[in-house]
Structure prediction request, 734 residues.
Amino acid sequence: MIKACQAMVECLKAEGVKVVFGYPGAAICPFYDKLSDSGIRHILVRHEANGGHAASGYARMTGKPAVCIATSGPGALNLLTAIATAYADSIPLICITGQVNSDQIGRDVFQEADITGAAEPFVKHSYLVKNAQELPRIFKEAFYIAGTGRPGPVLIDVPMDIQNTLIDFSYPEKADIRSYKPAGKGNYAQIKRVMNAIFEAKRPLICVGGGVFASNARDEITRLSEVMQIPAITTMMGISVFSTDNPLFFGMLGMHGVKCANVAVKECDLLFLVGARVGDRAVRTPLSLEGSAKIIHIDIDPAEIGKNMNADLPLVGDAKLVLQQMLELAKPMEHKEWLERLNGLVAKPTFPEPKEGTIEPRKFLSQLSDAMPENTTVVADVGQNQIWTATAYKMRKGRFLTSGGMGTMGYAIPAAVGAKLADPDGTVLAVCGDGSFQMSLAELATAVQHGVDIKVVVMTNHYLGMVREVQQNAYHNRLTAVSLEGSPDFLTIAKAYGLPCMRVTCQQEAQQAIERLSHESGSFFVECIVDELAATI
Amino acid sequence: MNSVNKDTMYCKRKFIKGCYNYSVKKKECQSSMKHTISVLVENHAGVLSRISGLFSRRGFNIDSLAVGVTDDPSVSRVTIIVEGNEYTVEQVEKQLNKLIDVIKVKTLEQKEFLARELILIKISVSAEKRAEIMTIAEITGAEIVDLSMTTMTLQLADTYPHIQRFEEIIRPYGIIEEVRTGTIAIQKGSEIITIKK
Prediction:
């Protein structure tokens, strides 16, 4: 017999968990006590939401569920934003929260919140543990549910008395859930139909989303595109599936995407969607495509097919397995005219001359990407900085991470910390705006405390730039509550955390900053001063 | 996965102040109608709130919802009547299927199932009027299940339209309380909805 809180730690060990992110409190103390000498590394964040985002960065790099922990009530509630952010981007998380004693639930005691109720719309599944003996099964199921099928967050809420109950511990070998059978291979007959449609198409186009990363199908889709000479574009979540060096890659589509990708979507006669849910920011008018192009939609989640756009050839399955099946049937093709047409649309980026004392953010990011290691992980925050990074930073072998679905500001710094912990030898770069940076700057302490080296670039334009742009365009230029006047001196902040840092206000300084970001080891902090009214695109 | 109905949506495109907006609208010609969905779920706490939460957050309208345990005590059956077009019903089915606690979902074919609802209705009746009520009960198939000096309680299990009709007939006698279950349904013939072992 062991205590349930000890069993929880044993469950994590059995799942191979090495690092967890969290913030303790009274209701989760029994578990923390056992975590203390377990060999599992605990990263203390400075806000629970950031614990969730850090776990998200970690999970995206490892491809496995990552663990975040919070206490009952306010701790768990702070975690909600991170849970919803992970849900929107299909990131596998195991969220463990403490809960008040079972017999006190429902009495509004100190730090009590119905977190399973509150999180219900944003979790793949959740558990409020009522019987300590069920904990091992619940943990096994939680990891299985979070990491398979369409990944997502799973919440386990454990009352304090349950954590202290003695149980017989044995960890189940596998989870058997009669109502949960995630899709695997695709239907063979449908795959043949899909291949025939591709063979017949004159202007086929591949569009990939985050699902390609979720199923680890980067190689398969790149090979299919190469063998069949099909041009490819991505959604924001799909950025970095294809290297920007790839001659078949034509950039990101959507509201903030590049012209050539958007024209490609309009002109193609066959659109082949892989792990992309056709969100409103990706395809402005998904349904207008229905007439003009044949649509093939591969997704592991049947509910995504036909939700935003009808597919002529829906194909439910795991992208990796389906693409492998397709590769077996693939034969070399040529689409010279079509590729010429698209290549003709590729515009060499031109950057406006920046005002005195400022730099052009896209030019900076573009030059930075030339200097940084090829496999750098880039974490873009949310706002103008996100679009600048998505469109100007040339991703090659590294991963691009951002909060694509939920657009949660403050994601970059904690997610970068998580990503770096998952890939300690790699370089991780976080790009923020001055708004989003101030939402999670406290996490610099997390990085310092745990010796996590990250490169941080903050684009300062003294505005919540993207909202300001909306107000300029749609609200008669009445700027309301978007000025960030009163912000502190960020270099003083960086210095206070003991980080080497510099400010960039001209091209010469930009070169120095790029040199130091790309060549110095350890953390480095750069603030770029950007024109107050710089445009997103 | 069968091909999804091609006519379930159409698109509207607008250009507003520098940014495109689009909206998905139900095809106008496709009329909204009632659909009966039978759902087998794990019989444990919290399942019903997951289902009702799903309906409200996805904007589906529930007309009626009834839950009860099945012959297998670990499984409950939820019968839901939802109003909407084909697109809505397809989404309801798919989204319900995504809930881990949902074991099986089936939309019952129109006219291929039997549906029943139960009503308990208490009316205020003086001794002279009792015979009249008993005649109505006999004709409609209702039972008189309780009697007091001043009231009578009737019970009827029937289809929704018949229950509505019955209620209309009884109303003039003075309804003082009415209790109804949601509709439950079962397929006709040998068809069943069951869990594969």
Observations:
- Residues 1-29 of chain B have pLDDT under 50 and may be disordered.
- Helices of chain B lie at 47-57, 86-98, 130-140, 160-170.
- Chain B touches chain A through 38 residues (CB under 8 Å).
- The first helix of chain B runs from residue 47 to 57.
